[in-house]
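YbeY metalloendoribonuclease
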Amino acid sequence: MGVVLRNLQKVVPLRRARLRKDVDTLRHILGIQKFDLGIICVDNYRIQKINHIYRKKNVPTDVLSFPFYEDLRPGKMPCPLHRDELNLGDIFLGVEFLMKQCQEESLDLHGALTAVTAHGICHLLGYRHETEEEWTEMLQRESYILSEYNRLTGRHLEPLMKRCNQDR
């Protein structure tokens, strides 16, 4: 199956083919091509609703991750026993929220989507940012992923660091 990419929002025009290519590049960098991954693009209403249900935060956000392997330690790869366990989980991208952030900070939306997807994949791979130490570890991993992405694509993406500080 690979990557299932769904665009459930109509607020922001989105080039799914470009995002899919970027996600495939991120999967290659991390060596997780054999794992299935869901990417769901949603509007502010839907991401706020999900954020409220699962995190008790009644505000929209840029990304929410739902790992298949909930107890995975950062830096460790899952060890699936069966084909149906070749799943990392799902990432919800708050596209409308990100678009507003990009407009405020003069950022490219597709670059931000890629950076936030890298952040989401880190969560699926066990990284957290509830403490300063975890935040530092996750930021280092994101920085590595995006530096490799930049090397392969000629782009210049960086982690959206404010996001981590706001979400803790």
